[in-house]
Amino acid sequence: MRKKNKRARLIKIFLLGGVLFALFLILVVSTVGRQEFNASHKISLELIGRAQAATTDVTDYFKSVWTDYVALWGVREENKRLREELANCRAARNEYREAVATNIRLTKLLALKESLPPPVLTARIVGKDPSLWFKTVIVDRGSADGVKKGMPAVTVEGIVGQVLDTSPQFSKILLATDPNSAIDVLIQPSRIQGIVKGRNDDGLELQYVLKNCDVRKGDQIITSGLGGVFPKGLPVGTVSKAVRDRRGMFQKIEVAPAVDFNGLEHLLIIMKENSLAE
Amino acid sequence: MVIITFLLLGTILIVLQTSLLPLLPHWLGTPDPLFVLIVFAAIRMETYQGAVLALIFGLLFDIFSGPYLGLYPVVFVILFVVLRLLAVNLLLTEAVHQVPLTLLSYLATTAGLYLFASLLAPDAPLPWSWRDVLLQLFMLAVFTIPLFAFYESLLVRLVQRKKRRSSLQVQAGNRFR
Q1: What are the backbone angles phi and psi of residue A256, rounded to the nearest 5°?
Q2: Contact between A31 and B62 using a beta-carbon 8 Å cutoff
Q3: Does the beta-carbon distance from A55 to B15 stay under 8 Å?
Q4: Confidence at residue A69, expressed as pLDDT on a 0 to 100 scale
Q5: Which residues of A touch B57 (CB under 8 A)?
Q6: Which of A141, A182, A204, B43 has the smallest number of Cβ neighbours within 10 A?
Q7: Could you report the per-residue pLDDT of A166-225, keeping only the tens digit for each?
């Protein structure tokens, strides 16, 4: 009797193990094959993303308390300067607002929706990649806000990266400094085209620029608009070093990014598929 | 209960590692308590418990790190199998083995991730940085013993609780019927 019970228990364990193993195989094969978040990934990101957002809230609160305390030093003079700046900005904003309204009206009239700049969505970084080899971040905007895979992420300083995957409330962004990132760019003064790739150490590398091209330290690098991800003319960085090796056809060009990736807290997602005219 | 508790603990560690610990200065490196937990699960827990945890942590880590889905579960499960075999066959479960075993595992895992990522995208070679790897190893060397002690105490407490509960269940029935 005892032997039979033991055998039945063993069969149960094997069956359970087999089912779990099969589920694991299905999960891994479907995930690796499609390279997209499946339902379990999305649920996990939703749950853990909320915890990340809460942790970031707490750390942001303590950081802001400290920053506010430090900012009290010389706040009066800064306040006066900022008020003057604000008045100037308000005047400029009114002019720009009018210009944008006119632009939209005329563009609608001309039925040129595509030529209008797409709207942007502000997102807060709630999680950073802890690994040594990859550079990704998690932001608190997801498919529910209209974010889709491949949308570009920028700051006012320049490009940050592109959306890799989304869940309803959160998204994963591949930073431009990741070695898997490749962006089609132009060297602004000479209009020479190249590809900027991440170097993983918060630096960038400009590739496929021929040796006979004139590239100088300090040259600005901007997006070319080719490749269909980033709009044309966004700042990428500045040439920090250009070396012509004896071997090979191309120059070795290092680029200092326009964005400080270490201090990144917020970013803008360009909603490429929605036009302002809509 | 053991799996659920350690799963919750691992999830909290992932949250900390992705939101709080990156605030530490870069020159200091980033502690990796989740990796120590995976090593601990491989050498101190039951085989099925450790395997389930290594797999789930791999799947979770995939969401928050790197562009390739499926990389971490594969690497973590391979790590688990190797460590389990070492722990069972060579009896590497004593306290003196913890630090060298963790450091070697980390080096092997980092090299494995590097290798797999390089194979998946041969046109985007990853730059190997000995400075960063050594910094991580140093941080692991510092934190392995206290983290192992913490995980061990938690595991012992959970196992004792389970034993106490099962002994109470045995005593509850009428054994003379």
Answers
A1: -85, 120
A2: yes
A3: yes
A4: 78
A5: none
A6: A182
A7: 999 999 999 999 988 889 999 888 888 899 998 877 789 888 888 888 888 888 999 988
